[in-house]
Design brief:
Strand content: 15-25%
Number of strands: 18
CATH superfamily of the largest domain: Histidine kinase-like ATPase, C-terminal domain
Low-confidence stretches: 1-5, 97-102, 127-138, 374-379, 593-602
Number of helices: 19
CATH topology of the largest domain: Heat Shock Protein 90
Length: about 650
């Protein structure tokens, strides 16, 4: 599927314009410049129903549709163009002065002043105003008619009462203006307020000017009074209606902002991509009041949908339903356009499908169950689009975070491999060189050497080989742990047996140290893989040998603490300073104060000990010994029941 590009061309239109002509001009420009275009619908405090025709036009042409409301046309267009990165604007103007671009020169000049980088294309149109035509055929509302007639009747009765007690005609005029103001506030549209304004003039003339109960007036000043009264009534009603519609738009904007902020907060609390998908489906379902199918995109294909079904929806969502609906969802994904119920593509489908956009393409497809229109859909279809965009942003943000984590892990693994190879090449050279040198001496000078000298060379070769075997075992275990390929073969083992096996394994590598094992009368059993736990204890003994002077004692004890057994390896060496303790169990960390004749370790031992202990649901720790030295403790869970076969 091709990548969705930002729209560089905006086709700006209102309810008064021929949207088809403007859209066709924008399409020709888009084709010429090899760019995409979007339709921007400008609402001047009119109802959302006026833009349905333009929305259907956008769906038919396969372009994005966005609606914004306000009073300053130039600033609206300039700001939206800046946000979406548009470079070319297509605006419709009429030779007749019947649309919002009447003062076209002033608006165009202001637009170019606000956004001088824009190329503005004017489409001249000769047509009757769509907005005006709709007003002519506007149906009267019975409730508004009754309010208008009732208010005029009440105002007339009140005015007659005031007239009978001597209130002047000037004050009665203000009563009628107030009446028109109330009618404008209580009814919808200009029809009722204009009617009330004209009717007020006629009623005032009929009931309160001499001669009364006629439409004649003796005084020459009355025509001016009537004109002022009518103009005042019309102006006040117009301002009231405008204020009402501004309040409506502000309320819709506030609702839109609240919905999007709530959605953003909910999605920010999601920790994984699956949680974001579940929360997104729930948000869309709650907003539309309908069941929702959300198909995430995985490896450039639609995955199985996340289903969010509402309780009032009797339709079962089973495999047969999904099999029938998935081709429509795929069409939406590959064509980046709406499909399904209520559209030209598969109109008989159970769901209406919309793409969920990200910055670089479509991240998913959402299906909304068909049925009766909900309040949310009637009020603002654009809000649904914005909500889908918010969900797409959250999905994309989580994908970026996961990709970043994956890259960091890969980088760390690559760094580990490089460090391991560097350490191996450096630290294995010494024992290999020693083995090579000693074996060469034996091959070339064996007859000249006495028995003691030959035995010493054999012993050195054996020690170096044992050290290499231990290092290789640690490397292999570390690799298995790093690749998560280690499967534990847990068996009941006696702690005393594990200690003795490790001691026997290290007995010829003590290098002048004394290894003391403190026996325990109570039999303590643990469920471990014996070879791994012996490796842990061997590493701890080897660590004590390397970092303590010859002749010192290394002590191994076992103690029961609650439901754990603590295996402790203690030495009486110089101990470990606080700075070293911070990195003690870090891979490739080695202490800087080794004896001159000792081999360097790769820094895998203690790190590997911790990994193995944690794999057995245990832990490892270090503390200072008294009066000096250090104590390493491996804590493992005790077996609760031990079955002994006879």
């Amino acid at each position: 599927m091709s990548e969705i590009k930002d729209s560089r061309i905006l086709a700006c239109m209102t309810s008064e314009m021929d949207g088809m002509e403007i859209a066709e001009t924008a399409a020709e420009l888009a084709k010429a410049f090899h760019e995409n275009f979007s339709i921007l619908y400008l609402t001047l405090f009119s109802s959302a129903d006026n833009k349905q025709k333009e929305r259907e036009l956008a769906e038919k042409m396969g372009v994005r549709f966005m609606s914004i409301a306000g009073t300053d046309i130039a600033s609206q267009i300039a700001e939206y163009a800046r946000v979406c990165g548009a470079e070319r604007i297509v605006i419709g103007i009429s030779e007749k002065k019947k649309n919002i671009f009447v003062k076209k020169d002033r608006i165009i000049q202001r637009l170019l002043k606000l956004a001088p980088y824009l190329d503005v294309y004017l489409v001249s149109q000769e047509y009757a105003s769509v907005y005006s035509t709709s007003k002519k055929h506007q149906k009267l509302n019975l409730n508004s008619c009754l309010i208008t007639l009732g208010m005029l009747g009440i105002t007339t009765l009140l005015s007659m009462l005031l007239y009978s007690i001597g209130v002047t005609e000037t004050n009665i005029v203000t009563v009628y203006i107030l009446s028109v103001l109330l009618i404008s506030y209580l009814t919808d549209g200009y029809t009722y307020s204009i009617f009330a304004s004209l009717a007020s003039v006629l009623i005032f003339n009929y009931f309160f000017t001499e001669p009364r109960y006629t439409f004649f007036a003796y005084e020459t000043g009355y025509p001016l009074t009537f004109a002022v009264m009518g103009i005042s009534a019309i102006l006040t009603s117009s301002l009231t209606i405008r204020s009402k519609k501004e309040e409506k738009v502000i309320a819709q904007k506030a609702y839109r902002t609240d919905v999007l902020l709530a959605a953003s907060r909910n999605l920010q609390h999601s920790q994984t991509q699956n949680e974001i998908l579940l929360d997104s489906a729930a948000l869309i379902s709650r907003f539309t009041g309908k069941s929702v199918l959300l198909y995430p995109v995985v490896n450039s294909r639609l995955d199985r949908p996340i289903v969010k079904k509402i309780a009032s929806d009797d339709q079962k969502i089973n495999e047969d339903v999904l099999q029938n609906e998935i081709p429509i969802a795929r069409w939406t994904y590959f064509n980046a356009s709406e499909a399904g119920a209520g559209t030209a593509i598969s109109p008989n489908a159970m769901y209406r499908y919309l793409p969920v956009y990200g910055s670089k393409g479509i991240l998913g497809v959402v299906g909304i169950h068909a049925g009766r229109q909900t309040k949310a859909e009637d009020m603002d279809q654009d809000l649904l689009t914005a909500l889908l965009s918010e969900c797409g942003t959250a999905i994309e943000r989580e994908q970026l975070r996961e990709n970043q984590n994956r890259l960091e892990i890969e980088t760390q693994r690559e760094k580990t491999r490089s460090t391991l190879l560097r350490a191996i090449s450096h630290d294995l050279r010494t024992p290999l060189t020693s083995i090579s040198g000693n074996s060469e001496v034996l091959l070339q000078e064996e007859e000249k050497l006495d028995e003691a000298q030959r035995h010493l060379l054999y012993q050195n070769i054996n020690d170096d080989a044992e050290w290499l075997i231990n290092v290789v075992e640690n490397i292999l275990l570390t690799t298995r742990m790093d690749n998560n390929s280690l499967t534990l073969n847990l068996q009941p083992e006696a702690v005393q047996d594990l200690i003795e096996e490790a001691a026997d394994h290290m007995s010829h590598l003590l290098n002048g140290h004394t290894l003391k094992i403190v026996p325990q009368d109570e039999l303590m059993m643990v469920e471990v893989e014996a070879s791994l736990m012996i490796q842990v204890l061997s590493n701890l003994i080897d660590n004590a040998v390397k970092y303590t002077p010859q002749g010192t004692v290394i002590t191994i004890t076992q103690e029961k603490h609650a439901d754990e057994v603590w295996i402790q390896v203690a030495d009486t060496g110089p101990g470990i300073n606080d700075e070293m303790k911070k990195n003690l169990f870090t891979m490739f960390y080695t202490a800087g104060s080794l004896r001159g004749d000792s081999r360097r370790g790769l820094g895998l031992g203690l790190s590997l000990c911790r990994t193995i202990a944690e794999a057995h649901h245990g832990r490892i720790s270090e503390r200072d010994n008294d009066p000096h030295g250090c104590v390493f403790t491996v804590a493992l869970p005790l077996m609760k029941e031990v079955q002994i076969d006879e």
